Amino acid sequence: MSQQWQSKLQNACQKMQMPPPKFHVVSDRRGGRTAWSCRVEVNGQLIDARFWFDGKNLENAKEDAAEVALNHIISTTSPSSASSRHSIW
């Protein structure tokens, strides 16, 4: 299973001299099943994944959270650091 977004997020945090991201798995009982998702803590801020997954696809929840967090980091960097945005990828 690829961890492409998690790696990109880890690298971006390192380049921006932020603490490494911390992933928090969350669950929600829905009828007879449990749905799983993930939150990632980046620089003290919790960012939720967009989607909920079956337990066997928990890695997808982490990837989703990492993608959302990375996009958040990129969108909140100052315009003066636009050239450094491209180096995150």
Automatic annotation (TrEMBL):
This is DRBM domain-containing protein. It holds the Pfam family dsrm. Transmembrane segments: none annotated. Residues 1-28 are annotated as: Disordered. It comes from the Eukaryota. InterPro entries: dsRBD_dom. Residues 1-14 have a biased composition (Polar residues). Residues 7-72 form the DRBM domain. CDD domains: DSRM_SF.
